[in-house]
Amino acid sequence: METIKVGIVGLGRLGKVHAHNLKGKVANATLYAACSPVSEELEYAKNNLGVQVTYTDYEEMVKDEQLDAIFIVSPSGLHCSQIQLGLKYGKHVFSEKPIGLNIEEINETIQVINQYPNQKFMLGFMRRFDTDYMYAKELVDNDELGDVTLIRCYGIDPSEGLESFVKFAGASNSGGLFADMSIHDIDLVRWFTGQEVSKVWAIGKNTTYKELDEVGELETGAAMLQLADNTMGILVAGRNCHHGYHVETELIGTKGMLRIAQVPEKNLVTIMNEHGVVRPTSQNFPERFSQAFINEANEFIECILTDRQPSINAIDGLESTKVALACKESYEKNQLVTI
């Protein structure tokens, strides 16, 4: 079978996850090139990933005729322009979420995507490729829960990363807590229900690092969502979880309810000692969703090889970002926002 040569832009924490997967865990793909403005990241790409060529300029990389596809794992504000440039130079494009931070720019990007129907574009909502979420979706689609009436989502990062995030927030724009973190949960709400969000009301609080107030960022936030058919959603997002990485989803329906990762267990081991009965928990997203990241990359490569469009598209990115930005606006204005 044909091997797809991939170039990656961005080799931060998530970029390294994708890069290592592409290096040896994704069928029919090879990591050929890497791009970063950080020299240490390019050295890492050469020495640890075995990439053949490296670039400091993204446009120079997408001009490389040896490349078939691009993985975009750069800062969120660059996604739209890099998606457009990759497509214009004939590449298939996978982009991490969010698709962008500006609705006008996202709409412009969708127009560009539509100009290249023979090229594949996919957005990185990896939870749709997690086996637990896939099983839950099958149950919902098979009417095991009846009509879904409420979805509750927790997405809280480990406390150990909070201090470094505070430094990042002072120099960069994450898009805000809801666009940076809750967007995965927003996508799940849309995926499970097939409905769009019509109204949001969001609140938040900074406690450990009050300086986040000064840069418009949140340590902990929550939002209530009303969907088009009046289904309810509750989002809780944060950056200060002391027991590890807490991602939990609950669906309540007219026939029953289900919970995904009620306890964010690392494995099936139970420890019984002087501390009581202890279940180890996942400590970060690369650990919790390791297989999901591989599954989504395999899906993207397979879409290229079989000439079909990925199930996750730019509209999913647009609608999720609309909701995330509405949550940010609701928090800042302290009022209900209609989408």
Automatic annotation (TrEMBL):
Gene3D superfamilies: Dihydrodipicolinate Reductase, domain 2, NAD(P)-binding Rossmann-like Domain. It holds the Pfam family GFO_IDH_MocA_C3. GO terms for cellular component: cytoplasm. GO terms for biological process: NADPH regeneration. GO terms for molecular function: nucleotide binding; oxidoreductase activity. It comes from the Bacteria. Residues 4-119 form the Gfo/Idh/MocA-like oxidoreductase N-terminal domain. Residues 133-259 form the GFO/IDH/MocA-like oxidoreductase domain. Keywords: Oxidoreductase. Belongs to the Gfo/Idh/MocA family. This is Inositol 2-dehydrogenase. It comes from Vagococcus teuberi. The lineage of its organism: Bacteria, Bacillati, Bacillota, Bacilli, Lactobacillales.
